[in-house]
Amino acid sequence: AGMGSAEPKLPQLKEATFKPGELMEVVGLKNAPDYNGKIVRIVKYHPDVDRYEVKFEGGRYDTVLVKLREENLMFSSVAERGNDDEKKEMPEGEIPNRTPVSIHGLASDTAKWMNGQKGIVVQWDKD
């Protein structure tokens, strides 16, 4: 039946992690380090090349479109802030949103490059 067919097998296309319209920060680029730390908005995901098309928001690259890998994007602390009335009591162990932090102690090969980086808490996930 279909055993010896010369039909090339299509690779499994990845699902997009980030959604169009989300604000992200560019991180870890070696070939275009000037983009690092800049804010971009997700335009669309291209599963065929496993890249996100993003558009820079403000600054010298305002409206420039580029395609970046998922590992070069992280959720931005510049998310549209609507309600600043969340000054409720903070449960123990939580870090409030918009708190500046330094990253230390990451051991995995994919994450250890972030050690020593500075960041801002975007959202606390108690899980």
Q: What are the key terms here?
A:
about 130 residues, 7 strands, 5-stranded antiparallel sheet, two-stranded antiparallel sheet, about 0% helix, mainly beta, globular
Cα end-to-end separation? 48 Å
Percent of residues in helices comes to under 10%
H/I helix tally: 0
Mean pLDDT: 78
Largest sheet: 5 strands, antiparallel
Percent of residues in β-strands: 15-25%
How would you write the strand order of the largest sheet?
A: 4-3-2-1-5
Helix-strand makeup class? mainly beta
- Secondary structure: number of strands: 7
Round the Cα radius of gyration to an integer and report it: 19 Å
List the uncertain runs: 81-88
Shape: globular
Describe the structure.
With 127 residues, the protein is mainly beta. It contains no helices and seven strands. The chain has a five-stranded antiparallel beta sheet with strand order 4-3-2-1-5, with no helix packed on it. A two-stranded antiparallel sheet has the order 6-7. About 6% of the residues have low confidence.
